[in-house]
Design the sequence.
């Protein structure tokens, strides 16, 4: 059970609601402000509209900003519609510029423009700058709340500045050094500052070997960079190496979650319908295109079976193994797809390694096919009394699984080469394609061995 001090969250929530209903401004303010922003938001979202409206009066825009950051998009929209533009603008002044830009970019243009016009000029300019970057780039997720130093600053002056400006900065664990043209020149950690003689200059404590990212770089590449170096933050620069912002690890965690959800949605063909709040009709509308496409691909499967109708009529028992061939092909192909998409997403595939990865998956398919073929060739004679039937099914499984892994591995690589998200080579698509290939292999082998198969 989650506890807030010595009380449970439920007890805290009940107490706050009671004080809100009593319109006890002082107690409500005192109690809410004492909580962590995450707990504040959890309690806020459980209040009625009237109770939330009272809380808006109790909390200043700056205090409300911390709660706003914790809400999801729909809850944020409801909040903006519930308060006046002046309150909203004052709150956006105290939000991190990247969070404000993310939200205003999704708003109605007229309302966003109105709020920006009321905001403080400096804050509004920072938000407008961030809104100009393409979505899912480093520039779009960076923050402008950072402290830039000069190489000739003294350590003592920097420490004094941190005391004054530190509370408003996104992070002070890494501080970036710029020259007189604001070009990135180095990095210094808070540890270095604390352990260096206060009389020394920043140049004596900083490192000039600083890793940075371009503002136009894809957010997934930034996430991989931060993971690779275990950074808490990374500076963002322009093509001319001008420092324009920083990206912190908490922003990257959001990116990782967003990208993982996106890839999961693509692979399972449910992209856009993962939100628990979406209606049944809305979810069906988003999934329908894939289902309809797969239905048409399913007609190809039906046509393959129809083409071998004579073979099935001659040896009816072959129909019993159609689900086995199709399921095995689909499952194997989807496994290969998942491996390749994951390695592409994490950047584990270096240039020149694609051939090796394909060979590995093909080898995996061969071994899987061999294991399955041996197993089925032992079971079929016991159940159906035919070694020839066992050989047909076993050989079909061997070749089908070998080919299925190649299909599952190669298709996402081709799609990635075309600069398209490889996750769009979704599981259902690969499964259906391998179904068709598996049936073609199965019936081709069965037809060639038709004279030797049992007719009953």
Sequence:
């Amino acid at each position: 059970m989650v506890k807030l001090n010595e009380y449970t969250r439920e007890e805290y929530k009940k107490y706050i609601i009671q004080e809100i209903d009593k319109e006890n401004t002082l107690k409500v303010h005192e109690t809410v402000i004492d909580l962590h922003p995450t707990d504040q938001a959890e309690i806020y979202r459980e209040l009625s509209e009237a109770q939330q409206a009272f809380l808006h009066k109790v909390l200043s825009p700056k205090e409300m900003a911390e709660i706003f950051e914790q809400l999801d998009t729909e809850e944020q929209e409801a909040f903006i519609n519930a308060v006046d533009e002046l309150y909203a603008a004052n709150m956006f002044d105290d939000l991190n510029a990247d969070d404000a830009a993310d939200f205003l970019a999704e708003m109605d243009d007229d309302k966003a423009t109105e709020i920006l016009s009321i905001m403080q000029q400096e804050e509004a300019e920072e938000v407008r700058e961030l809104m100009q970057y393409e979505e899912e780039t480093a520039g779009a997720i960076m923050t402008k709340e950072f402290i830039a130093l000069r190489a000739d600053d003294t350590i003592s002056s920097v420490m004094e500045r941190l005391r004054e400006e530190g509370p408003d900065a996104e992070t002070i664990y890494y501080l970036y050094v710029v020259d007189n043209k604001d070009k990135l020149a180095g990095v210094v950690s808070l540890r270095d500052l604390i352990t260096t003689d206060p009389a020394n200059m920043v140049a004596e404590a900083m490192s000039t070997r600083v890793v940075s990212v371009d503002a136009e770089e894809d957010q997934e590449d930034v996430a991989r960079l931060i993971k690779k170096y275990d950074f808490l933050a990374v500076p963002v620069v322009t093509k001319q190496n001008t420092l324009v912002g920083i990206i912190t690890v908490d922003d990257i965690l959001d990116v990782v979650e967003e990208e993982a959800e996106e890839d999961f949605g693509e692979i399972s063909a449910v992209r856009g319908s993962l939100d628990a709040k979406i209606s049944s009709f809305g979810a069906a509308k988003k999934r329908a295109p894939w289902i309809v496409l797969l239905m048409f691909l399913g007609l190809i499967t039906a046509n393959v079976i129809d083409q071998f109708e004579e073979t099935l009529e001659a040896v009816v028992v072959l129909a019993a193994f159609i689900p086995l061939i199709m399921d095995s092909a689909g499952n194997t192909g989807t496994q290969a797809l998942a491996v390749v998409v994951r390695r592409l997403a994490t950047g584990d595939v270096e240039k020149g390694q694609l051939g090796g990865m394909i060979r590995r998956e093909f080898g995996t398919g061969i071994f899987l096919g061999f294991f399955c073929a041996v197993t089925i060739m032992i079971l079929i004679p016991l159940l159906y009394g035919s070694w020839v039937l066992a050989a047909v099914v076993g050989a079909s499984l061997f070749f089908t699984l070998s080919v299925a892994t190649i299909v599952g591995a190669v298709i996402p690589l081709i799609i990635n080469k075309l600069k398209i998200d490889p996750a769009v080579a979704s599981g259902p698509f690969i499964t259906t394609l391998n179904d068709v290939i598996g049936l073609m292999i199965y019936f081709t082998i069965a037809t060639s061995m038709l004279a030797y198969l049992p007719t009953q």
